[in-house]
Specification:
By secondary structure, this protein is mainly α. It is 83% helix and 0% strand. It contains 2 helices and no strands.
Length: 75
């Protein structure tokens, strides 16, 4: 029971981080297409950094925060 609480909290944090990453990446791409003079288009290395941040780093941070939340629920 205790393990499932922590695991489900971590999974929910991962999903929330992934949703946030998708929204952030979509906003960056849309801003680059709609406002090319203000926000340069994502190209080359900048796109790789944006993908890694949005789809790897944010979900991992969300999972870590969810895991910590699950640990707090057990106290």
């Amino acid at each position: 029971m205790r393990t499932s609480i922590v695991a489900w909290s971590a999974v929910s944090g991962l999903v929330l981080g992934l949703i946030g990453g998708i929204l952030l990446f979509a906003a960056l791409v849309a801003a680059g297409e709609l406002l090319p003079s203000i926000v340069p288009r994502l190209g080359g290395r900048a796109r790789i950094v944006a993908v890694l941040f949005s789809f790897v780093l944010l979900p991992l941070v969300g999972a870590a925060l969810g895991w910590m939340e699950g640990r707090l629920k057990l106290r």
